[in-house]
From TrEMBL:
<dbReference type="InterPro" id="IPR016205">
    <property type="entry name" value="Glycerol_DH"/>
</dbReference>
<dbReference type="InterPro" id="IPR018211">
    <property type="entry name" value="ADH_Fe_CS"/>
</dbReference>
<dbReference type="Pfam" id="PF00465">
    <property type="entry name" value="Fe-ADH"/>
</dbReference>
<feature type="binding site">
    <location>
        <begin position="89"/>
        <end position="93"/>
    </location>
    <ligand>
        <name>NAD(+)</name>
    </ligand>
</feature>
<feature type="binding site">
    <location>
        <position position="120"/>
    </location>
    <ligand>
        <name>NAD(+)</name>
    </ligand>
</feature>
<protein>
    <recommendedName>
        <fullName>Glycerol dehydrogenase</fullName>
        <ecNumber>1.1.1.6</ecNumber>
    </recommendedName>
</protein>
<comment type="similarity">
    <text>Belongs to the iron-containing alcohol dehydrogenase family.</text>
</comment>
<feature type="binding site">
    <location>
        <position position="271"/>
    </location>
    <ligand>
        <name>glycerol</name>
    </ligand>
</feature>
<keyword id="KW-0479">Metal-binding</keyword>
<comment type="pathway">
    <text>Polyol metabolism; glycerol fermentation; glycerone phosphate from glycerol (oxidative route): step 1/2.</text>
</comment>
<keyword id="KW-0560">Oxidoreductase</keyword>
<feature type="binding site">
    <location>
        <position position="126"/>
    </location>
    <ligand>
        <name>NAD(+)</name>
    </ligand>
</feature>
<dbReference type="GO" id="GO:0046872">
    <property type="term" value="F:metal ion binding"/>
</dbReference>
<feature type="binding site">
    <location>
        <position position="122"/>
    </location>
    <ligand>
        <name>NAD(+)</name>
    </ligand>
</feature>
<keyword id="KW-0520">NAD</keyword>
<feature type="binding site">
    <location>
        <position position="166"/>
    </location>
    <ligand>
        <name>glycerol</name>
    </ligand>
</feature>
<feature type="binding site">
    <location>
        <position position="252"/>
    </location>
    <ligand>
        <name>glycerol</name>
    </ligand>
</feature>
């Protein structure tokens, strides 16, 4: 469900070459311009030790359909029979599209703890101008995910915190408009996804703050191990169970609105930081004010912003009203006056 093999431990990147040989004989390694140089020596040593051949290519752009075909053709022309993606969420998505286009198996080596993209059987797509272009859902899982804890322990605490809140959003967003799902009022796969999301939420809330502190000291600890597994595998399983549908709601719609209307002014803030602010609104809309307050306190413990004011934006800014309307007029908020008023009150909670 999402990945055929999942390896997570210290120094596990040394097994990359041997993992490639389980699937083929020559790897087409796609790496990000910032992330790949950090692991290049370890990657090359791994291939050398396994006597495995590879061709390395650096790629910077987000996932597009044209690049997927171009890179797939390049991999096949080089005689490669395995795709390896190394980098953050963007590179994980690119590698999945290339694997699908080439019809070749895929190994993902994430270098960011803040995303489940290595595990999830879908890619967020963009056009040549960098605008969102839907989602590419794959019919087969990733063959292997290799998560090296030595790499995870070198993450900035801010990135970990953002990833934690992005993953925690699954539970409140799946239950959008209410406080939970039951087996009787939902499809069994959706209910299973919700149950996994509940487990994930509790794990992330329990260990998130400690994991940030441990990473700040460069330590691989139980807390960091658990947060990594929750962010990567458990969150990926939730996405796989829902097939990428109905797993996001107001919090991620708020993120989209911020990127759409605040544009470059929102760039200093990470994906998970904006989703986290929207998550406070989501919990309030769900009729769970105590959960919203608990979440706000948890975010404060990791020095995260909790409102538009915290990231430098005012409720009087006309763009704020645009974001509010962008979120309000969507499938996640009913058009009835009562529901629209409940949403307006929920949005007001994140202005200051």
């Amino acid at each position: 469900m999402g990945a055929g093999r999942y390896l997570q431990e210290k120094g596990v990147i040394t097994l990359l070459g041997s993992e490639v040989l389980l699937l083929g004989s020559k790897a087409f390694v796609l790496g990000g311009p910032c992330s790949y140089p950090l692991v290049r020596d370890a990657v090359e040593s791994s291939f050398s030790a396994a006597s495995a051949a590879f061709e390395a290519v650096t790629h910077e752009a987000p996932a597009t359909r044209d690049d997927a075909r171009r890179l797939a053709d390049q991999a096949l022309a080089c005689g490669c029979d395995v795709i390896v993606g190394i980098g953050g969420g963007r590179m994980m998505d690119v590698a999945k599209t290339v694997s699908c286009s080439a019809g070749l198996p895929l190994i993902e080596v994430p270098t960011s703890i803040a995303t489940c993209a290595a595990y999830t059987p879908l890619s967020v797509m963009y056009d040549a101008q960098g605008k969102a272009d839907g989602v590419w859902r794959f019919t087969r899982e990733v063959d292997a995910v290799i998560v090296d804890m030595d790499i995870m322990a070198n993450q900035p605490p801010r990135l970990i915190a953002a990833g934690v809140l992005d993953a925690m959003a699954k539970m409140p967003e799946i239950s959008n408009g209410g406080t939970g799902l039951t087996c009787d009022n939902s499809r069994v796969d959706r209910f299973a996804a919700y149950q996994y999301a509940c487990i994930n939420y509790d794990l992330l809330h329990r260990y998130g703050t400690q994991a940030c502190q441990d990473a700040a000291n460069g330590q691989v600890t139980e807390a960091l191990e658990r947060i990594t597994f929750a962010n990567m595998a458990l969150t990926g399983i939730v996405s796989a169970l829902t097939r990428g549908f109905h797993q996001t709601a107001l919090a991620h719609r708020f993120y989209d609105g911020m990127r759409t209307f605040f544009g470059q002014d929102s760039k200093p803030w990470l994906h998970g930081e904006l989703v986290a602010i929207g998550l406070i609104m989501q919990c309030t809309f769900n009729g769970a004010p105590d959960q919203a307050q608990e979440l706000r306190e948890f975010m404060r413990s990791m020095d995260m912003p909790c409102s538009l004011a915290d990231i430098g934006f005012s409720g009087d800014d006309p763009r704020t009203a645009q974001v509010r309307d962008y979120v309000a007029h969507t499938e996640f908020v009913d058009d009835s006056p009562e529901c629209q008023e409940r949403f307006a009150q929920s949005f007001a909670k994140i202005i200051s």
